[in-house]
Amino acid sequence: MKKLLLIGSALTLISTSALASQARLLALGMKETDNEGMYHVSDARNIFLNPAYMNIYNDYVTAEYGREGAFISKDTTGATSSTTTLDRDNRPKAQGGFFKKQGDFVYGLYVGNESNTSSLLRIVGTSATAAINSAAGPSKMLNSADNQFDLFFGGGSDLKWGTNVTFAHGKDDSRKAKDTALSLRTGLIGSGWDAHLNVSLASKAEAVDSVNLGGVTEVSHEFKGKLGLQLGGSYVLSGNNRVFGYVKHYGWEQTDSSTLAATTPISATAVLGGQNGTVKGDFTSIYLGWGTHYDMNTSDKVFVSLAGKKTDINAKFATKGEVRNLVVPVTIGYEAVATEWLTLRGSVIQNIWGQKDNKNYNSINPVGRGVITNAFGSQGKGTIVDSTEVNAGASLTFGKLVVDGLVGVKATGALATDTLLSRAALTYNF
Amino acid sequence: MRRNVLLIAGLAVLSTSAFASKARIEALGTNSNLYIKDNRNVFRNAATINSNKNYIVTEWGTQGTASGNDDAATPRAEGGFFKEAGSLAYGLYLGNDEQAKAAVTGAGFLRQDNALDLFLGGDAGLQWGARVHYANSKDEPGTAAAVRKNTAIGLGLGVVMGAAEGYANVDLSDKSEGDGTTASNEAKQKPSFTVGGSYVWSDYTFFAEVANAKVEGKIAGVTETDKDFAVTVGAGRVMEINPTARIFGNVAFAMTKNETNDGASPATEVKTTNTALPVTFGFETDATSWLALRGSVSQNVVLNNNKVETTGVAATKTTNANTTNVNAGASLTFGKLALDGSIGVKASGTLNTDNLLSRVGATYSF
Questions:
Q1: 8 A C-beta contact, residue B225 and residue B214
Q2: pLDDT tens-place string over residues B261-273
Q3: Mutate to test the interface with B, among A22, A100, A101, A111 (most CBs of B within 10 A)
Q4: How far is A302 from chain B (nearest CA, A)?
Q5: For chain A, what is the HEC assignment?
Q6: Residue A315: closest CA among A133, A143, A129, A123
Q7: A354 - beta bridge partners?
Q8: If we measure between CA atoms, which residue out of A141, A136, A7, A35 comes closest to residue A93?
Q9: If we measure between CA atoms, which residue out of B63, B61, B22, B19 comes closest to residue B43?
Q10: Average pLDDT, chain B
Q11: Is the dihedral of CA A58, A60, A66, A67 positive or negative?
């Protein structure tokens, strides 16, 4: 209590500033695998959706607190190391960047923003034999992208434009592992509209791993991404009313040298699904929606959106693993400047339509199966359960410095004061 | 509650003061000590005592890690004072025990303990400074074979000449005798050094540093060695946004090499080489008259190689994983007293209030 009073006393002296972080958009209901932004909520984070946003948000340094993220292995709860990581709310990846305006142009550098979608596909693309490895051994997953950096450059006034090149590379000779990721984002913001085309030019991960499973002692496996695209944009109908949408499509090939038969029983919960040789996969997501915000006064806003998202994943093993999701979430959010130093926000989301028809998860390696289940629901046909989700966040504004974060403990519904903010981010506007 | 109100009321009328601690340096990110001014730099360049004096600093902690080393999670207690005397300045610092290698701590030798550093500096147009480092410890449990001793002595010299500075820190001797079972076993650091310098040109600070160290262990007639070599060359810039806020960044080429030889016949040698290009940027700002906040993000870009060569084994090359590092810190200023510390929990990305500050350093300026 004493500490809170201390902080509160300090903050009363300061003024508001721009807010920008993953935490802010998550609190307002963002539901994107890569936390890349929201079309109807203006935020600096939207540069990862449309890099032309750098022309609106620049001259700042941001640092999002975290470390390596969540290690992904078959022992998902106890994994303390892995070559594969995902960014999660309770185990975020450290990342940050700066953006500076120079005359008519803006440039920036951002590090550590590795894509969860890319990691998910590499997890699915990992050899099932390597993912199981042995009865007790840790999973030997293909590397997810690491030490990624993004270079940004943009400009324009009436018509704003932006580009962003993303690159990541890693290698480990001890397991003949290499991975590379290269992509290009381009975007435009016009009067009442915006559009972007984000292209994955290369995504490759390969490794040769020692295993001890069903007589197999070594597995050579590779994930090779095909040309990936995300084409999208938004259009202002009137006032703050905006329609938006995108199409994402990624294809890949995965190669597995394991000779274990398609039906080799490994355990009651892990059965190989015929990954031998080279098989293909694809991920397609189509998103269409409407969103708006209502200005309640000069500082407070209410956000409303209704969108439909269809996600299909095909892992074309001998027995094809499939994800089929169709959700239509409605999101209602608010953001209120409680005091000059404290901004609070929150949202409630629920699918008014949510159907899944997921098949043959057992074809997917057990680690990938867990990640897919977490993201797209369990195997089978039916409605997606428990889609109601409440998020909340806060920003502490210290003049030009803003500390954003999520607040509250969802599982217990508590507002804990020992963890003041989670997914904390610091942004300094200069 | 009454005390809370008093504390808050006190803070409201306080002015800013200098910040100086390990926590601040860590929050400012990789290589920040090579181009950002901080009182802590007196251990890098003793001549900086001339511009950082008249204060007492205490870094909170206990004995450090299980092996007695200092790290952010388990800091070691240390502190000292620095005072001017006419055109001279002097200081005494306690507990800045040098980090010990596993060849010393793992083998049961006594490591540096209860170290003290004496500083003397002066400004006669050219700023100069010198530091003498000394540590001595002994453990005589009653049997001659179990006797353990450690003695260490080092010397630091530095100058600051306008925009340029140079320094050399030399470990003249660091010898541990007796590993608890055999009194004749020993581990000693061969004369080792860190030399470096920097030059400020057009708002940029160009810096370079070379470090070389060698530890030799003699156990049961077998001599094993552990050598380190490091080169850092880079440039950094601090942009003052206003008198109470600044942003900064640096890029550097960093090469480190570690070579170990187990002394066996035939010997197994392991050579580990790291080459990296870490990029760091961040900010520091006075949020209020009594609260300063700082943060940084760093990552190896383009160059990020690790190579391990072991006798009889094919060399392995890897990239260093997860080099993205975000640090944050805060300083609470109570007039002439400043409490620095690290904030946040990296693994969970949380900003907690049960541990308001960690790795706390308290500085009182007089």
A1: yes
A2: 998 888 999 999 9
A3: A111
A4: 27
A5: CHHHHHHHHHHCCCCCCCCCCHHHHHHCCCCCCCCCCCCCCCCHHHHHCCHHHHHCCCCEEEEEEEEECEECCCCCCCCCCCCCEECECCECEEEEEEEEEECCEEEEEEECCCCHHHHHHHHHHCCHHHHHCCCCCCCCCCCCCCCCEEEEEEECCCCEEEEEEEEEEEEEHHHCEEEEEEEEEEEEECCCEEEEEEEEEEEEEEEEEEEEECCEEEEEEEEEECCEEEEEEEEEEECCEEEEEEEEEEEEEEEECCCCCCCCEEECCEECCCCCEEEEEEEEEEEEEEEEEEECCCCCEEEEEEEEEEEEEEECCCCCEEEEEEEEEEEEEEEEEEECCEEEEEEEEEEEEEEEEEECHHHCCHHHHHHHHHHHCCCEEEECCCCCEEEEEEEEEECCEEEEEECCECCCCECCCCEEEEEEEEEEEC
A6: A123
A7: A327
A8: A35
A9: B22
A10: 89
A11: positive
| Shortest CA gap A360–chain B (Å) | 34
Minimal CA separation from B331 to chain A, in Å: 12
Predicted ipTM of the assembly = 0.84
Q: Mind telling me how many Å the CA of A205 is from chain B's nearest CA?
A: 14
Q: Are A79 and B347 in contact (CB under 8 A)?
A: no
Note whether B47 and B129 are within 8 A (CB).
Answer: yes
Higher pLDDT, B2 or A82: A82
| CA B283-B289-B292 angle, 5° bins | 30
Q: What is the pTM of this model?
A: 0.89
The residues spanned by each domain of chain B are 2-365
- Please list the ranges in chain A whose pLDDT falls under 70: 1-20, 75-80, 261-274
From chain B residues 271-290, the ones with a CB under 8 A of any chain A CB are: 279, 281-283, 285, 287-290
Class of the CATH domain delimited by B2-365? mainly beta
> A97–B241: do the CB atoms touch at under 8 Å?
no
What stretch of H or E contains A120?
helix A116-125
| Band of pLDDT at residue B176, cut at 50, 70 and 90 | very high
CB contact under 8 A, B319 and A170: yes
Q: Which of chain B's residues have a Cβ under 8 Å away from the Cβ of A422?
A: 348-351
| Residue B72: predicted pLDDT | 83
The H or E element containing residue A229 is: strand A228-238
Give the residue carrying structure tokens 């339509």.
A353
Tokens matching residue A143 = 């590397």
B304 interaction partners in chain A (CB closer than 8 Å): 147
Name the residue type at position A286: I
**Cβ of B287 and A398 within 8 Å?**
yes
What are the φ/ψ torsions at residue B109 (nearest 5 degrees)? -75, 155
